[in-house]
Design brief:
- With 592 residues, this protein is an alpha+beta fold.
- Helix content is 50%, strand content 20%.
- Among the domains are: 81 residues, Distorted Sandwich (Calcium-transporting ATPase, cytoplasmic transduction domain A), CATH 2.70.150.10; 145 residues, HAD superfamily/HAD-like (Rossmann fold, 3-Layer(aba) Sandwich); 103 residues, 3-Layer(aba) Sandwich (Calcium-transporting ATPase, cytoplasmic domain N), CATH 3.40.1110.
- A hairpin with a 6-residue loop joins strand 15 and strand 16.
- The longest helix is centred in the C-terminal third of the chain and has 36 residues.
- It is elongated and about 110 Å long.
Length: 592
């Protein structure tokens, strides 16, 4: 309520001044006092309109508010202050509603920066010393514990480390590092604690470069044009022609005022934001949050869709898709042995094997002498025999394999894959059938991207091994010939999401930066939400267009009657309010 009152205080005060002036005018006949209150209401209600109009004239732009301003000026000249105050109330209320409805959430860069730890643990001699991230210098030895985000770029000082780089590169599997390997800011430690030597400061890291690209994209992104502005020129010209005829017919500013009052473009101002609010509320019921309402209009015109891979078309975490036994071994026993050993590891691949074993309800064995080497594998002794699980990458297929060994004998293989979302193929087929051009931008390897497209059996243009800058440049290139929507979920998508005509992101706790960079946030994992949001955007704009065109039509008919002196200014203001109500009720259909 406080937020609403703060946004709408101006039209509310104008309304209050009108209410107070009415008994002064018609009951107590105190005209000068009432006129003073009404003039105050006119000034308060049209202050922003006049400033905006001056700015538009300076920029040589055409604005829809010129009619309202001319009507207010004419009402003051003719002494019809009540009419002027009513126009000021309608105009300021419509503009305030539009600004309130279109207000977008701020904080993109803040969210990106906050993802990094503000306090960093460093090693000085034998002591652990906490520093602010701003105080980390090149050459400092930084300690990163399990689950923490790497604060700056560097080189691994210890023997091994395991990092989740999916938010930066789109790689769906943890990446194992050995001594001397590059460690990048913004990645997450999914293994044991490790140390690295900083090679950049906070402001010169690759992650900070992403922040800079998002900032630049927001500055360069073209402002969205109000839907009503597309019709304002024609409506204004028609209004001036009818007002001119009215003046020539009666040589009276009173008739001109009647025409201008009826022509006050509130249907144009109100129709779009109310329809957009309704559409946004409808989407919210399906767990789709429209952060910037003007993006609904742009989404209705989108003809090219760019998808990230990991977490967008796929679930973003590995699952076991096959378990193959080599030789004459009992499959259930080997699965139980593997699960029992992997229970002792924090590695995401280990979790996938344990989950697969739980689904098959295998027994649990006691494991002794457990040894895990990050980047190599884990081993343990069960019933006097040593078993080990070792990672094997199939570079040709892109699958991740885990081999189970009894001693040195390879006895079984787990095949893991980043699982494609179950409705991806069906929804993408529908989108292609609707005429959308589909693209896949991924930081993953070319073989993995091609495997996904082959699985979907669809024609998608592929850009693989993309850096955040590659994705951003790809979006810019597409925008030369298309209206582009980008769908992603990772920090590496943030610059592209901010640059695209519409950015759509799968929201989650981890990906707050990408969520803030987007215009629309999809909660859940279903691809169907993308199709549904596009269809609802088209329906919302269709309803807004109906309201605009019906509002213009009714206003033109009323102007013709007013030009012949059949509608006095006060009655014209009331009639205009009735047209506004009709427009509002029609626009509210977008919420149903």
């Amino acid at each position: 309520m406080h937020r609403f009152l703060t946004a709408f205080w101006r039209p509310l005060v104008v309304l209050l001044l009108i209410v107070i002036s009415l008994p002064l005018l018609f009951l107590w006949k105190i005209g000068p006092v009432a006129d003073g209150l009404l003039i105050l209401g006119i000034l308060l209600g049209t202050y922003d309109l006049f400033l905006e109009a001056i700015g538009q004239m300076w920029r040589r732009q055409f604005g829809i508010d010129y009619i309202a301003i001319l009507a207010v000026v004419t009402s003051v000249i003719t002494g019809e202050y009540l009419v002027g105050a009513i126009i000021a109330l309608m105009a300021s209320g419509g503009v305030t509603l539009e600004n309130y409805a279109s207000a977008q959430a701020k904080g993109t860069l803040t969210a990106l920066a906050k993802r990094l730890p503000q306090e960093v643990l460093t090693l000085q001699g034998d002591a652990h010393v906490k520093k602010s991230i701003h105080e980390v210098n090149i050459g400092d030895v930084v300690i990163v514990r399990h689950g923490e985000v790497v604060p700056v770029d560097g080189k691994l000082a210890g023997t091994t480390a395991s990092l989740d780089e999916s938010s930066l590169t789109g790689e769906s599997y943890p990446v194992d590092k050995t001594a001397g390997d590059i460690i990048r800011a913004g990645t997450v430690n999914v293994g044991e604690m490790f140390q690295f030597v900083a090679t950049t400061s906070e402001t010169s890291s690759g992650y900070h470069h992403i922040i800079d690209m998002v900032s630049q994209a927001q500055v360069e992104k073209a402002p969205m044009v109000r839907l009503a502005d597309q019709y304002s020129v024609y409506f204004t010209l028609i209004t001036f022609v009818i007002a001119g005829i009215a003046y020539l017919h009666g040589h009276s500013l009173y008739a001109v005022l009647s025409v201008l009052v009826v022509a006050t473009p509130c249907p144009l101002i109100l129709a779009t934001p109310i329809a957009l609010l309704g559409g946004a509320n409808k989407s919210a019921k399906s767990r789709v949050i429209i952060k910037k309402l003007a993006s609904i209009e742009v989404l209705s015109r989108v003809n090219a869709l760019v998808f990230d891979k990991t977490g967008t078309l796929t679930l973003g975490h590995p699952r076991v898709i096959d378990f193959t036994v080599h030789g004459r071994y009992e499959k259930e026993r080997l699965l139980a042995i593997s699960s029992s050993i992997e229970h002792n590891s924090l590695h995401p691949l280990a979790h996938a094997i344990v989950l697969y074993a739980n689904e098959h309800k295998v027994p649990h064995f006691i494991v002794k002498d457990i040894k895990e080497v990050v980047g190599k594998g884990i081993s343990g002794v069960i019933a006097g025999k040593t078993y080990s699980l070792v990672k094997i990458t199939d570079h040709q297929s892109g699958d991740m394999n885990i081999g189970l060994y009894q001693g040195r004998t390879h006895v079984a293989t787990f095949t893991l894959q980043d699982e494609v979302k179950e409705d991806a193929r069906r929804i993408l087929q529908k989108l292609q059938g609707m005429g959308f051009v589909l693209h896949l931008f991924t930081g993953d390897r070319k073989q993995v991207a091609e495997q996904l497209v082959s699985h979907l059996r669809l024609s998608l243009a592929i850009r693989s091994e993309c850096s955040p800058e590659d994705k951003l440049n790809g979006i810019k290139q597409l925008q030369k010939s298309h209206v582009v929507a980008m769908v992603g979920d990772g920090i590496n998508d943030a610059p592209a999401l901010a640059t695209a005509d519409v950015g759509m992101v799968y929201g989650s706790y981890e990906q707050t930066a990408a969520t803030e960079a987007a215009d629309i946030v999809l909660f859940g994992v279903s691809i169907h939400a993308i199709l549904q949001t596009i269809l609802e955007a088209k329906q919302t704009i269709r309803i807004a267009m109906q309201s605009i065109l019906w509002g213009i039509g009714l206003s033109i008919i009323a102007m013709i009657f007013a030009a012949w002196g059949l509608i006095p200014p006060v009655y014209g203001a009331i009639l205009q309010e009735l047209i506004d109500v009709a427009v509002i009720f029609n626009s509210l259909r977008a919420a149903r």
